[in-house]
Amino acid sequence: xxxxxxxxxxxxxxxxxxxxxxxxxxxxxxxxxxxxxxxxxxxxxxxxxxxxxxxxxxxxxxxxxxxxxxxxxxxxxxxxxxxxxxxxxxxxxxxxxxxxxxxxxxxxxxxxxxxxxxxxxxxxxxxxxxxxxxxxxxxxxxxxxxxxxxxxxxxxxxxxxxxxxxxxxxxxxxxxxxxxxxxxxxxxxxxxxxxxxxxxxxxxxxxxxxxxxxxxxxxxxxxxxxxxxxxxxxxxxxxxxxxxxxxxxxxxxxxxxxxxxxxxxxxxxxxxxxxxxxxxxxxxxxxxxxxxxxxxxxxxxxxxxxxxxxxxxxxxxxxxxxxxxxxxxxxxxxxxxxxxxxxxxxxxxxxxxxxxxxxxxxxxxxxxxxxxxxxxxxxxxxxxxxxxxxxxx
Length: 393
Hints:
Blueprint: E1 3-12, E2 19-27, E3 30-35, E4 45-48, E5 53-56, E6 58-63, H1 80-96, E7 99-104, H2 111-122, E8 129-131, E9 137-138, E10 150-151, H3 155-167, E11 173-176, H4 195-207, E12 212-218, H5 219-228, E13 232-238, H6 241-247, E14 253-255, H7 264-269, H8 274-297, E15 300-301, E16 312-313, E17 316-317, H9 318-328, H10 333-347, E18 365-368, E19 382-387, E20 390-392
Helix pairs in contact: 1-2, 3-4, 4-5, 5-6, 6-8, 9-10
């Protein structure tokens, strides 16, 4: 039996926003006790958390571990071992910045499944919990072109491809229903899938007891996807008030990824082509307005970075940058924290085991040097990460 106790901590209740002095005992990777005073026992590992704010491990739900910058350098025929090495390093970096659970929504060679399987085989605690999506589905020549996606045309092909990813072990299915910002000449307003194609993927997901996540740039395609049964949406670059109200219904989640339209310095440093930078710059004002509409409408917002979570973006981790951008879009610091914990946990169906500091929950914890209920920028000040009861170094 392994046991660890955190003492003199400031424990953040992400439901209420209350910050209270206390301690946490962890036994065999689970939270065993939370209280105002939990005394260390003989032989028990002890962490003095004086002055630190303890939050649940972060749940970030728009992750790509295998992504290549700039996108045009992607080799769809890359040696899978090369992809695996890059993805595993990215996973370790994500964990070190506090992302103890990541939802991957398109990985070349289904490398998210590989990283997860290897971690399970070796009890590797240096990578986060991975909720895997395998490969995304794209129309030929669409937004997913050139990234190792599965290319489909028509409902039958989309259904078969979705079943293949799910049968391989994917936890959800990713589709591209509009254009995006990466390629020259594409537009987030341009639809790329028919309602029948979306519905076919939703049917495949339902047969596996899961859901569909859509790269979705514009309200017209989003409304069609809602009609088809899609429940998880990414980006939402242009969303009108009517669509915002529709997205506010229970069981629907939106990950804004504001970071992708607000990271010009990082895009230049990573070698993004001029057209990608221009597309992002032009999209930024409408993107921010759209997310403010979603916040005002009461949409369930989740946290997602698109960049690998541990990537340095505009001077801090992508995790922290996106958190600060969500705050600028109208979420309170507490709501940002909820987006990155409880909301993400509900989206991936793990709300009974992650996203809160409660007995019985996974011992995924982050110690911060500043109060995240006062300012989302505190997520840039990670002091220590605990993953399943193990200290991350």
